[in-house]
């Protein structure tokens, strides 16, 4: 049995995964429906897969946050409690993540092996360059984009699909959260 792999990403309308300036991780638009839905998504048993840069960013954000900050929203705390694989040639164990291991090698090879061996679904939140490569290799079963109602033309950082191959997308699911946030789940197919 092959495990499914979901590339889960937050985006501004103009395709950025984050922004500088005074924008927050949710661009200040999160509400109770979004937060409850995210927690429900992460309640399911699954293995997280991160690239080294995303792991470092999460570890740094969590280490410098307080219990009251939005960085420690319940779904993020739950995500951190899930087993995780970090694909890296530079990081060494032990990691500051309760159940994480480091696997060195090409992310395409690592995730192909994980898909064959994992008894639970795989999910990656962020890790943009890694997930673009995994999509091009046909290893991503679904792309879940949470679209926030902002345009970050001046402060946008981390273009989600910059340099990606061309893909046709089949809409699998969609929902509106808190009246203004769109969650779109697609099955990607390399466009030939």
UniProtKB/TrEMBL annotation:
InterPro entries: DHFR-like_dom_sf (IPR024072), RibDG_C (IPR002734), Riboflavin_Biosynth_HTPR (IPR050765). Residues 6-180 form the Bacterial bifunctional deaminase-reductase C-terminal domain. PANTHER family: BIFUNCTIONAL DEAMINASE-REDUCTASE DOMAIN PROTEIN (PTHR38011:SF2), DIHYDROFOLATE REDUCTASE FAMILY PROTEIN (AFU_ORTHOLOGUE AFUA_8G06820) (PTHR38011). This is Dihydrofolate reductase family protein.
């Amino acid at each position: 049995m092959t495990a499914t792999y979901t590339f889960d990403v937050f985006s501004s309308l103009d395709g950025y995964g984050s922004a500088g300036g005074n924008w927050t991780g949710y661009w200040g638009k999160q509400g109770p429906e979004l937060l409850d839905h995210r927690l429900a998504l992460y309640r399911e048993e699954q293995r997280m897969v991160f690239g080294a840069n995303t792991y470092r960013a999460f570890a740094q954000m969590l280490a410098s946050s307080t219990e009251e900050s939005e960085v420690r929203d319940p779904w993020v705390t739950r995500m951190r409690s899930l087993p995780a694989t970090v694909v890296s040639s530079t990081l060494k164990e032990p990691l500051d993540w309760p159940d994480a291991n480091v696997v060195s090698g090409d992310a395409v090879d690592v995730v192909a092996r994980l898909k064959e061996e994992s008894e639970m679904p795989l999910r990656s939140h962020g890790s943009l360059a890694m997930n673009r490569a995994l999509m091009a290799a046909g290893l991503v079963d679904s792309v879940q984009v949470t679209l926030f109602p902002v345009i970050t033309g001046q402060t946008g950082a981390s273009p989600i699909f910059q340099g990606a191959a061309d893909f046709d997308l089949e809409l699998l699911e969609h929902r509106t959260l808190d009246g203004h946030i769109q969650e779109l789940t697609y099955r990607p197919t390399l466009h030939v």
